[in-house]
Amino acid sequence: AERHVHHIPQALLVADGIRIEVATNRLNTALKKQSVYSDAVEYDRRWLRKLFASVGTEMDFQVKSIFGLMHPAKVEAYHRYHSSRAKVHRAADDVSAIVASLNYIAP
CA-CA distance, 55 to 94, in Å (whole number)? Predict the structure, then answer.
């Protein structure tokens, strides 16, 4: 995923990245007993489970769909608007795009 989706060279991950144990510990500490919302919940949940399983750790938080937070009639409008935006696929950019899409469909 780092190369195909995020366009991050493996050398950069090795040079500047953190160990998986550190990453999973940080996530569990910051998100303990909370819900994290995603617009691609199945993909994100599967990826996170794989990450945590690789170090034998359980996730202490839940991943839920943002679509459960909105009226069903707004979901299609969200998808239309969100798909029209340029994709960089980095966390901060993803969050900005999601917020812009949610603001666009807000009443």
Answer: 26
Q: Under 8 Å CB-to-CB from 62, ≥6 apart: which residues?
A: 34, 35, 36
Mean pLDDT of all residues in the chain?
84
Yes or no: say if 59 and 49 are a contact pair by the CB < 8 Å rule: yes
Alpha-carbon distance 2 to 59, whole Å? 21
Cβ atoms of 19 and 47 closer than 8 Å: no
- Could you give the C-alpha distances from 35 to 47, 54, 101, in angstroms and in order? 16, 22, 20
2's tokens: 């780092």
Question: How many angstroms separate the most distant Cα atoms in the chain?
Answer: 46
Residue ranges for the chain with pLDDT beneath 70: 1-6, 85-92, 107
